[in-house]
Amino acid sequence: MKYLWALLGLLYAVLSIYVGYLFITSAVGAKLTQKGLLLQVPPLLGGIALILLAVPLLWNCARLVTARTA
Amino acid sequence: MTKTVVLLAGVILFVVGIGASYAEWGSGGQPWGQLLTDNFLFARSLPFTIGLGIAVGFWRASGWRWGTEQKGQQLRRFAPSTVWLHALAGIALVALIATGGWQYLKGLLAADSPIYMGTVYRVHYLAGTLLIFVTVAFLTDWLLRGERSLTIGNGQFIRSMRGLAHELPKPLGTIIGYTLGLDLRRAPPHTEEFTYYERTISFPLWELSVGLIILTGVIKAMRYVYPIPGDLLYWVSAVHVGAGVLLGLKLLDHLRYVLAPSRWPLMAAIATGWIPIRYVERFHPGWYAQITAAPTTAAPVPTVPASSRAATSAGGGS
Question: Which of A29, A57, B218, B240 has the greatest number of C-beta atoms within 10 Å?
Answer without folding.
Answer: A57
